[in-house]
Design brief:
This protein is of the alpha/beta class. The protein contains 10 helices and 7 strands. Strand 5 and strand 6 form a beta hairpin. The chain is globular, with a radius of gyration of 19 Å.
Length: 273
Amino acid sequence: MTTKQGINKKVIAMIDVAFRKHSLEGYDSVWGIGGDEGTGKSSLAAWLLHYWLLRLNGEVVEDDYRLMALDKEQFLSALKTLPKGGGIVFDETDIISRQSMAKANIQFMKMYQIIRAKQFLSVLVLPSLFDLDGFFRKRRLRGYFHVTKRGVAHFWSKTKLRKMVALNDRLPVKNPFVVKPTHTFAFSAYDGPFEGKYREAKDEKMRTIIEDIEREFEKEDKGDDELIHERLFEAFADGVKTTEICKKWNINPQMLSSYKKKWLAHRMRRGEI
């Protein structure tokens, strides 16, 4: 069950243990969060960051929304100024296509050499655990959260996570539940000090994505179809309503339905649904 703190007491205790290991033993921690869009992955990430910052600074302030990075540029910028033992979240906004994920994996491997030295807590919010580089998810992740529906998450410890990843290596359709989770718990929507600023930043990011897609549709070059598909996939994954896409871009609902079927097939091939 949740507490008035927004997440389960066991999860708060887990944060306490990780923080002590960081402080006393020089650890770093990388946690992953996966699951379908619209299930509250960002809220869970915000709560994890919130309680980490409470341990680190004794308080959480509005400006901490900057530690909820919505793209690789924000993530890198925040890394440069984070104090030793700090915490940061990387949300999934601009990692949708296979090409962008491949680039991100290379960048993650480089960035996490820095993170290990500075003993950060970092939380990666992604469409699927199995999009991450194999070595990274086996050796760098210390825990994984999977959100199955709004406000309900499951957690695998490092030992169980490695077993789960190894078993899934042999499966054509990936399934984290081949290994029983360490914990299953509920959490509420994040309503802490940086919720308002973070929501504004995420809404602005979504507007930018919509504008980018609109510009792509205005191009006359038919060779841009693949890029247009990628932008539409981003809009679907970000939870932009179908009616809003049709209205804003003047797309026939039947045509958009065809694009969405391609997106769902794309996710099925990656073992996300």
